[in-house]
Design a protein that fits this description.
The protein is an alpha/beta fold. It has three helices and five strands. It has a domain of about 70 residues: 2-Layer Sandwich (Nucleotidyltransferase, domain 5). Helix 2 packs parallel to helix 3. The longest helix has 21 residues.
Length: about 140
């Protein structure tokens, strides 16, 4: 940068203009770098993929209907079972892929202990998709 002049008649003052040449040089170097590297980033293999019109098969998991009535009796898909028998059925269902969903219908008068035991047995068998079935309130 030039700060002084060879003219003796003028008072020496610093030059207050920005020298643009180095900035333009840096910009041009960056532009060249981007021009060279841009084609490398878009390199792809051209393929003609086959066309198919098939829908994806989605395996719908089975559902197991659990019911517990007001007396604490347990029902597995409509069949009355004891807690031990139901735990064995849960173990069998836990080995099936995809894992079935449990739909639990419990009477509102049933003890919470019975529901908690049933859920614990299902969880122990690896069944984690559990839905609670209820009736909507009347308006």
């Amino acid at each position: 940068m030039a700060f002084a002049s060879f003219d003796a008649k003028r008072t020496p003052m610093p030059m207050s203009e920005i020298n643009m040449v180095p900035l333009i040089d840096v910009m041009l170097v960056l532009l060249v770098i981007f021009i060279v590297t841009a084609p490398l980033l878009t390199h792809a293999v051209k393929l003609e993929l086959p066309k198919a019109s098939a829908e994806v098969n989605q395996l719908r998991p089975d559902k197991i209907e659990l019911a517990i009535d007001a007396q604490g009796r347990r029902f597995f898909n409509g069949e009355q079972l004891s807690r031990q028998q139901m735990a064995e059925r849960f173990t069998q269902a836990g080995k099936v892929q995809p894992l079935p969903e449990l739909h639990l219908r419990a009477d509102q008068a049933v003890s919470y202990r019975v529901v908690a035991e049933t859920l614990a047995d299902a969880s122990r068998a690896g069944l984690s998709k559990i839905g609670f079935v209820s009736e909507p309130e009347a308006p």
